[in-house]
Design a protein that fits this description.
alpha+beta, 3-stranded antiparallel β-sheet, 5 helices, B box-type domain-containing protein, PLATZ
């Protein structure tokens, strides 16, 4: 008797994706969007270190349905005659059926299992539809299955790093000081000019912002903020205005 369905294929069709992971409920980005073929379960990005030596398949979303990259799925099973779609410059195929009534007049091709209209020369709208067709007509999937010992995630797949720091509220050693819109005024020459320069630097130090690596600008008031009274007091210590002698 032929093979009905391998365990990984059966689980891929029944597992739920893009739901919260029960093992990482409090973590951010804990949606299950990875499928482990060796464990036959859906996992979230935080679970990947525990499955790093397993075959992993990334699951994506397209028009509210689960899809996988055609390039990855082809390593596991023959996907010929399954209609593919393009998202983010990658061809993907649907995992499950998407039933549709034959309402498109003039359509030539229809899915062999769910009557969805298709483009030529495709005959199956999803992986599930093709599997059902093969089991119905051939009673055996073994000629269409492919041996795959390793299957890794694409290089652009990001695993979140929980370092406990909120980049938008904490200062880092890699911050870059960026001048504000109001430039500092610089004077030279007399002692009066030195006082003006000192006051200008003190006043404008409150206008400095810090640009973090994340691109977020933070407001950082100066610890030595100069009050209006200090400025007025400093101004009063400047040289007095010389009085002209009265006209004779």
């Amino acid at each position: 008797m032929g093979i009905q369905k391998p365990a990984w294929l059966e689980a891929l069709y029944t597992q739920k994706f893009f739901v919260g992971c029960c093992f990482h409920e409090t973590a951010r980005k804990n949606e299950k969007n990875v499928y482990c073929l060796d464990c036959c379960i859906s996992i979230c990005p935080h679970c990947i270190p525990s499955h790093r030596f397993h075959r992993l398949l990334q699951v994506r979303r397209y028009v509210y349905h689960d899809v996988v990259r055609l390039e990855d799925l082809q390593k596991l099973i023959d996907c010929s005659n399954v209609q593919a779609y393009t998202i983010n410059s990658a061809k993907v195929v649907f995992i499950k059926k998407r039933p549709q009534n034959r309402q498109f007049k003039g359509a030539v091709n229809y899915c062999t299992s769910c009557d969805r209209s298709l483009q030529e020369p495709f005959f199956h709208c999803s992986l599930g539809c093709k599997v059902d067709f093969l089991l119905k007509h051939y009673k055996d999937l073994s000629p269409f299955l492919r041996k795959c010992n390793t299957l890794t995630l694409s290089p652009d797949f990001l695993i979140p790093q929980d370092n406990g720091d909120d980049e938008t509220t904490h200062e880092t050693s890699h911050s870059t000081i960026v001048d504000s819109d109001e430039p500092m005024s610089w004077s030279s020459g007399s002692s009066s000019g030195s006082e003006t320069m000192s006051m200008s630097m003190a006043y404008n130090s409150d206008q400095i912002v810090r640009k973090k690596r994340s691109g977020v600008y933070l407001w950082r008031p100066s610890a030595n903020k100069v009050s209006d009274e200090d400025i007025a007091s400093n101004m009063s210590r400047r040289k007095g205005i010389p009085h002209r002698s009265p006209l004779c």
